[in-house]
Write a structure and sequence with these properties.
about 375 residues; alpha/beta; Nucleotidyltransferase, domain 5; 15 helices
Length: about 375
Amino acid sequence: MTKQYAVGLMSGTSVDGIDAALVTIEGSGTNTKVELVHFVTTSFSPDLKERIFQAMSENQSTSALICSLNFELGEVFANAVKQVCKEAHIPLDKLSFIGSHGQTIYHQPFQTKDTFPSTLQIGEPSIIAYHTKTKVVSNFRSMDMAAGGEGAPLVPYSDYLLYRSNSHGRALQNIGGIGNVTVLPKKPSLQNVFAFDTGPGNMVIDGLCERLQGIPFDKGGMIASKGMVHDTLAQNWLEWESDFFNKTPPKSTGREMFGEVFVNKIIQENHHLANEDLIATATYLTALSIANAYKKFVFPTHDIYEVIVAGGGSFNRTLLHWLRELLPHQEVKVQEDIGFSSEAKEAVAFALLANETLNGNPGNVPNATGASEPVILGSITPCPVKK
């Protein structure tokens, strides 16, 4: 097997910036070997972050804004590739390919009266390919949706390849803007792996921090640690989106459900409470939604010994405290406890998914997305020049 250098790019619903993971990859499928070489996060400028949020807003977005951002973000993604390679002292011409998730602008996984099931990630792959002189795999979610799936979550395939265990069941819980879990039974096969979005991750917490404190997030969960959790209030917030929480997986969600409107309602109805209390209760809400999802949809049919947390939420000590309190019979760990990187997990996953695409292998897990069958994901943009 030939070892290749690749970069995985991820920008999530929190819109914090771009995660770029430089990896080496050998083989494909269950023979895949992947190692993280270097990882960087490139923050968005305040102006760019604001325009991305505008593009997500049904009231503020325009086709001209989305069109322009698509190309602008392509350049920002390309610069992230250059940065991670430069810091690792790996020349760009050593890269075999790039897997770019892009920036989700809208995700509508189910049909409504006025909309067709659809999803849109921007960050033009031609721009990335041209500026890095490297093949790019992008647009991962669309083919799964074409096959009747929700286009999310997609990380379960890489979770299966990297984290399966012959000795015990594991739950891989990612806490980015949205929370999602991959359930890996003991000695799993792809047929019995399943996954779904658990609800809000950092999105509500970050939104409250931005509005109430003028800061992008609660570093380490320090603000939440000083507040009082209002349990009844958290339960009420769950009721606002009870259709989602009660729905049997597969299911996915996003900013459309737990973004600005959700945060505004919290503030408007609870202005009498201290900022710290609201942020503490939102932190508890995330932990509670995860624990409830496990108790309702995972534990009745699967024996789970470990819960392994990744994403930005893994650095929130108050959130982890509540998760351990609510899941007393499971070992709640973070990626670093088992030798992986919490920050790089999703970016590594899209490098791995790109590798599967280029090897002609399906990259979705139908039990996770609801697709009718396994399908090869993504669109391939070739290197624009001969290397």
